[in-house]
Amino acid sequence: MPDKTALVCGQARVTYRELAGRAYQLAWALRRRGIGRGDRVLMFSDNTIEAAISFWGVLATGAVAVPISPLTKTEKLAWLLNHCGASALITERRLTAVFVPAARRATQLRTVLVCDLASSDDLPGESDWALALASEKADAPPPICCDEADLAALIYTSGTTGRPKGVMLTHRNMISATDSICQYLALCEDDVVHGIMPMAFDYGLYQLLLSVRQGARLVLAPPFILLGQVLKQAVAEAVTVFPGVPTVFAMLGELKDVSPWNLSSVRVVTSTAAALTNRHVAIIHRIFPNARIFSMYGVTDCKRCTYLPPEDLARKPGSVGIAIPNTELWLVDDQDRRVGAHQVGQLVIRGPTVMRGYWGDLEETSRMLRPGPVVGEVVLYTGDLCRLDDEGYLYFVGRMDDIIKSRGEKVPPQEVEMVLSAIPGVKETAVIGVPDKLLGQAVKAFVVAEEGATLSETDLRRGCREKLEGFMVPQSIAIVASLPKNANGKINKLALSESFPAPSNLP
C-alpha cells in the first residue's frame, strides 16, 4: 500500500512510499558520514514526521536508534552522548541552545544532522540534513549486514542510582513485542492510531512500530497541543486507537462538556504506567463511548508485561492483567522460590521481549537478567513487587526501588536531590512521591537549610527548573528543621511517605 497515508502531523501528510524514500535518503546521508552497523545515533527531537523518518533511517543503516526527550537539558544530553558513545546526533533547530554545547563535549560524535535548516550557514560548524538529503539516492536503503540479534535501539530509563540506564533492545525484542501487542489489541490496516505520547519514550515509540507493522496510519499530536485540540484532531482524523496514561485521562476528566467532539470512531483505548482506577474508567467511557479499554503494565526492560482484557475490567478492579502473548510470568521471594496465589513476590518475565541488558553496566545487567528454565536463556527480574489471584491475574503492589512515577514519567529522586543539594544554603534534602489524583504521584521535596541560610520555596524551585526536565521539578517543597533518620543514619523516607495516605477517591 505505498500510496496509503502513513503519517500525519498538523497539515503534513506522508505516504508509505514517501516515508520509505525519505528514510532511505537519511540512511544514505548517514552512511556517507561513516555511520553503519552498531553505531549509536541519538535522536533529539519532538513528535514530528522527521522524528519518525529518523528512526527508520537509522535502522536502515544497521545503526542503533537512541531516542531522547526534547526536554533534556544540556548537561544531561552531553552525558547521554558520551555514555552511549554516539557517533551521530539528529535534532532540530529549535533545540540549538541545548544541543550545540552538549555536542561539543561529546568525545565520539562525528556528525550532527539538523532536520529543519534552510542553509548550513544558519548553524556554522554543524552539518545540515536538508542539504545533505538533496543529493542522496533514495530508491533503496544502503546494503547492510544485520540480523535479529543486533541492537535496534537504546531506550534510556532512570535507574535507582539517579543516572539513566540504557536498555539494549534487539530487533528480535522489538519485533516480538510489536507482534504480541498487535495480537491482543487486534490492530489492523484500517486503524488510525493517535500518537499523543512522546516518541522519545518507549510507549510513544511503539505506536509508530505498531502502525507500520499493520499498515495503519499514525497521527502525531504536535508538541504542546492542548487536550481540546487533541480531541479535535482525533475527530478530524477519525482516530480508532487512543493510547494514554492515567494522568492524560484524569486531565480529560476535567473537561465537563465533551459534546463538541464525536469520538465514536475510537474502538480501542490503551493505558499504561499504572493500573486504571474506577474514576479513570468512568472518564474513558464518557469520552470514548464505543471503546474497548485495555489497561496494561510494563517496564522498558521488556516493553510490556501484562494486559487486562476489556471483558475483565469490571470483575478484576485494580488488576494489571495477564501475561501478553508469547511471554510467561511468575513471582519469587527473596530466596528465588516461586510464590503462590495471594503472596507478594518479585515479578519475573520470560520471553523474546526481554532486553539484552543495560549499556555499559554489567553489574546491573547481571542483577536483572538471571538464568531461566532452559539452558542458555535469561529471564528478567523486574524489581517490582506484585501478587497473583487464584486465576493468575496480576496485581501491582510496589517497587523495590523508590522511583517516582509522575505524569506517566519516571522520576529518580536521587537526581532531584542532587540538584537541590547543589543550591547554596541547602544542607540536606529528601525527595519522595506522594499520592496525587491527577499525576499518579507528585514529586515532593524536603529541604533542611544550613545554619544561618535563608531559603525560599520559590528560589529552590527556580534552581530545579534550570537543571531538570519539567516533570521532575517538585510540585511542592517543604523547608524543615530536620529529616527523620533510621538506625544507621540514613534518611528514613518511609517515615516521610507515611504522612501522605492515598487520596480517598481512589478505589
Structure description:
The chain has 507 residues and is an alpha/beta fold. Among the domains are: 5-146, Rossmann fold (3-Layer(aba) Sandwich); 404-497, ANL, C-terminal domain (GMP Synthetase, Chain A, domain 3, 2-Layer Sandwich), CATH 3.30.300.30. The protein has 14 helices and 27 strands. The strands form seven sheets. The protein has a five-stranded parallel sheet. α9 packs across α10. Mean pLDDT is 89; it is low at 503-507.
Features:
disordered C terminus, alpha/beta, GMP Synthetase, Chain A, domain 3, Rossmann fold, 507 residues, globular
Question: How is the secondary structure organized here?
Answer:
Blueprint: E1 5-9, E2 12-15, H1 16-32, E3 40-44, H2 49-59, E4 64-68, H3 74-83, E5 88-91, H4 96-104, E6 111-114, E7 127-128, H5 129-134, E8 151-158, E9 164-170, H6 171-185, E10 192-195, H7 202-214, E11 217-220, H8 227-236, E12 241-244, H9 246-252, E13 268-271, H10 278-287, E14 292-297, E15 306-308, E16 322-323, E17 328-332, E18 345-350, E19 357-358, H11 362-368, E20 369-371, E21 378-388, E22 394-399, E23 404-406, E24 409-411, H12 413-421, E25 426-436, E26 440-449, H13 457-467, E27 476-480, H14 493-497
Parallel strand pairs: 1-11, 3-4, 3-5, 5-6, 6-7, 10-11, 12-13, 13-14, 26-27
Antiparallel strand pairs: 1-2, 8-9, 9-19, 14-15, 15-16, 17-18, 18-21, 20-21, 21-22, 23-24, 25-26
Helix pairs in contact: 1-2, 3-4, 6-7, 9-10
